[in-house]
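Severity: low
Component: inverse-folding endpoint
Summary: output formatting inconsistent between runs
Steps to reproduce: submit the following structure tokens with default settings.
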């Protein structure tokens, strides 16, 4: 009897050990300095955050191999740090990134260099009282003159007064028009390192900004509205903006029949603004979807404090934001600083000359995408109408009646 009782346990141990024996052997080779970037990433990062980095790279590469539509989210002061020049613009030029969600600040600070201002390395512990006396603005260990902000404000105020801006629009339309004007300025000035706005304009990459009012470009819109009154007609339609994000995602997986990947640099509003396109479609509009197929994130935040910036794919799956397949095999949360890791992974990815795709130009597909999603909504109008009424429970009605009688 005792022997029979142990048999299932022994069988389970045997199965588990067979699975274990199939796992990758941790036996990195000595680095000689002659290896290719791909060799270093795939062979010399065996454990801990290094293994997270390696897995993230493998999923980035899979995104390209599967021809997935890549949605990039970018938070934090990344353009002052130059991450767009070192990584994001090269990825756009090679056709890897199809859609971007970022902050207004990243697009605003990117313009400093276009008009000849410099961002320099500074000592973060030198004393902010002294920096303020010198009229030096600090972003941790980066600094620039206060005049940089004032002249950049003048630049955007002048551009935003143009006739093409005088109507209601979404953030992708706003940033496309800004990108066109910045591109023309760069051409006239002979700028050799283009901005993120102008690059996205040239390659038809839509740029969304979820909290558009939380940035200096919009602060200048506020100024113009107060100064010019009714003659300044620019307004941002946030309702259409959210619908457009959902429409572009619907266009990718429904019309183009492509997988979708999300590469998250940091977290914050850009992360959720992109991911919420899926609950919008499925839970709010009743349009079937399954969520992003591949999910890669680089962020320093811990995952156990309930913060949206660091919530892992499994938590996102419970909201319908990422697919079951993503949670099982297509997701990696890399617990690290973006600036310490992403340039290295970009180098490894682009060192393969085969990593090059035809530009998808999702910006040019916006109108089609919106019309297609609207038709899908119209087909569900009768069912959706039933979701906009709420029948209060009888007990709640009695409580309300008592309150009114008092």
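Observed output (run 2 of 3):
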């Amino acid at each position: 009897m005792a022997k029979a009782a142990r048999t299932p346990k022994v069988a389970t141990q045997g199965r588990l050990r067979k699975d274990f024996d199939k796992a990758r052997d941790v036996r990195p080779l000595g680095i000689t300095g002659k290896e290719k970037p791909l060799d270093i990433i795939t062979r010399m990062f065996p454990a801990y955050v290094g293994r997270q980095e390696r897995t993230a790279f493998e999923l980035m590469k899979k995104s390209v191999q599967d021809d997935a539509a890549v949605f990039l989210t970018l938070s934090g002061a990344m353009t002052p740090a130059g991450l767009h020049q070192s990584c994001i613009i090269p990825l756009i030029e090679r056709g890897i990134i199809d859609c971007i969600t970022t902050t207004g600040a990243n697009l605003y600070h990117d313009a400093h260099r276009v008009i000849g201002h410099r961002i320099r390395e500074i000592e973060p512990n030198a004393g902010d009282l002294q920096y303020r006396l010198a009229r030096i603005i600090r972003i941790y260990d980066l600094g620039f003159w206060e005049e940089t902000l004032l002249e950049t404000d003048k630049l955007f105020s002048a551009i935003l007064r143009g006739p093409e801006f005088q109507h209601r629009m979404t953030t992708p339309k706003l940033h496309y028009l800004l990108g066109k004007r910045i591109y023309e300025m760069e051409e006239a000035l002979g700028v050799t390192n283009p901005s993120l706005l102008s690059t996205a304009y040239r390659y038809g990459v839509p740029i969304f900004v979820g909290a558009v009012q939380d940035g200096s470009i919009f602060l200048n819109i506020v100024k113009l509205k107060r100064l010019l009154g009714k003659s300044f007609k620019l307004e941002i339609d946030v309702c259409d903006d959210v619908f457009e994000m959902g429409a572009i995602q619907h266009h990718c997986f429904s019309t183009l029949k492509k997988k979708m990947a999300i590469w998250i640099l940091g977290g914050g509003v850009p992360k959720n603004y992109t991911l919420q396109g899926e609950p919008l479609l499925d839970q709010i509009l009743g349009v079937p979807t399954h969520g992003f197929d591949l999910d890669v994130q680089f962020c320093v935040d811990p995952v156990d404090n309930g913060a949206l910036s660091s919530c892992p794919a499994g938590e996102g799956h419970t909201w319908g934001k990422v697919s079951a397949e993503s949670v099982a095999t297509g997701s990696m949360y890399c617990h690290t600083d973006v600036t310490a890791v992403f340039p290295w992974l970009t180098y490894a990815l682009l060192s393969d000359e085969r990593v090059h795709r035809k530009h998808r130009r999702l910006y040019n597909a916006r109108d089609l995408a919106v019309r297609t999603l609207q038709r899908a909504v119209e087909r569900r109008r009768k069912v959706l109408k039933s979701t906009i009424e709420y029948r209060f429970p009888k007990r709640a009605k009695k409580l309300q009646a008592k309150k009114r009688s008092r």
